[in-house]
Specification:
two-stranded antiparallel ribbon; 8 helices; 46% helix; globular
Length: 182
């Protein structure tokens, strides 16, 4: 059921946001010269996949978890993209490909071994990672791996069609603060 909803809403999102995506690509090109950011992340069953986002940091910035990144590396346009969560739009493609879901645990970096371990023992890695979920709307980031894995497990244990829509709506209206950056 969730996969069907993912395909429908990701398709609708990409089609309706196409003009906006085009504008963001152009502005991003002038901002960094490379508007799309690709990074390997941990997917379903711990398998790596390539996540796509709009670039918010300068080209060449160290690839670390957001809570370890320096805010000095974020461009002015990048701050706007993060604040509005528009940097996540290209992930709709990841959803269509089947790498991600709209709702699920945020995919972590392959180097975040403690978070991967905590998620593995709680069964969180058995599902597709998501663009948003309970941790995101509650403002919990990846800086406390055990807490994040617990919240992810709670969300998955109580995920229904109603909570799926609830997390999507809360994300669209701006609930949660997104990834914390030092």
């Amino acid at each position: 059921m969730f996969r069907f909803l993912d395909i429908i809403f990701a398709s609708l999102g990409l089609v309706t946001a196409f003009p906006l995506i085009g504008v963001l690509l152009i502005v991003g090109y002038f901002d960094t010269g490379s508007p799309i950011f690709r990074q390997q992340r941990v997917g379903r069953d711990g398998n790596p996949f390539v996540l796509v986002k709009f670039r918010t940091m300068r080209v060449g910035t160290l690839s670390v978890a957001s809570h370890l990144a320096s805010s000095e590396d974020i461009t002015s346009f990048g701050h706007f993209l993060r604040r509005t969560k528009l940097d996540e739009l290209p992930q709709l493609w990841n959803v269509l490909k089947g790498d991600m879901s709209l709702v699920g645990p945020r995919p972590c970096l392959l180097t975040q071994k403690q978070l991967i371990h905590e998620r593995k023992i709680r069964g969180v890695l058995s599902v597709r990672p998501g663009i948003t979920g309970l941790a995101q709307v509650q403002g919990v980031d990846m800086s406390v791996p055990e807490r994040l894995a617990e919240i992810d497990a709670i969300m998955l244990g109580k995920l229904t069609v109603a909570t799926y829509f609830k997390y999507l709506i809360q994300t669209v209206v701006g609930k949660g603060r997104g990834d914390r950056v030092l």
